[in-house]
């Protein structure tokens, strides 16, 4: 543990940021998992609604810097492609 005042403050900030980032990453994983499970079950309407929510979560995570912007964009693209492919069937 740091002894210098600025180091102590920095440590506290890092703990807060880590907790926030872990929560956001967990939310992203859950949203993506929900969409994937709906696709495998074959429900078209529900998967489209879940895709909209997952897109929102992913884009927000990308804009806040929790995920890289291009990573978030790639995940959204792949999910959308999978939902549209499942809807055609």
Largest sheet: none
CATH architecture: Up-down Bundle
CATH superfamily descriptor: Ribosomal protein S20
Q: Give the CA-based shape.
A: elongated
Compact summary:
The protein has helices spanning 5-41, 44-64, 69-88. The chain is mostly helical and 89 residues long. It is elongated, with a radius of gyration of 17 Å.
SSE layout and pairing:
Layout: H1 5-41, H2 44-64, H3 69-88
Please tell me about this protein's structure.
With 89 residues, the chain is mainly α. It has a single domain, classed as Methane Monooxygenase Hydroxylase, Chain G, domain 1 (Up-down Bundle), CATH 1.20.58. Helices cover 88% and strands 0% of the residues. It is built from three helices and no strands. Helix 2 runs antiparallel to helix 3. The longest helix is centred in the first third of the chain and has 37 residues. The protein is elongated, with a radius of gyration of 17 Å. The N and C termini lie far apart (57 Å). The mean pLDDT is 95.
């Amino acid at each position: 543990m740091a002894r210098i005042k600025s180091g102590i403050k920095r440590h506290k900030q890092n703990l807060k940021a880590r907790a926030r980032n872990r929560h956001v990453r967990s939310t992203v994983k859950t949203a993506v998992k929900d969409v994937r499970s709906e696709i495998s079950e074959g429900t078209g309407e529900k998967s489209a609604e879940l895709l909209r929510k997952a897109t929102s979560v992913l884009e927000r995570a990308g804009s806040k810097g929790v995920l890289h912007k291009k990573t978030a964009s790639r995940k959204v693209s792949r999910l959308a492609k999978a939902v549209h492919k499942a809807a055609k069937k």
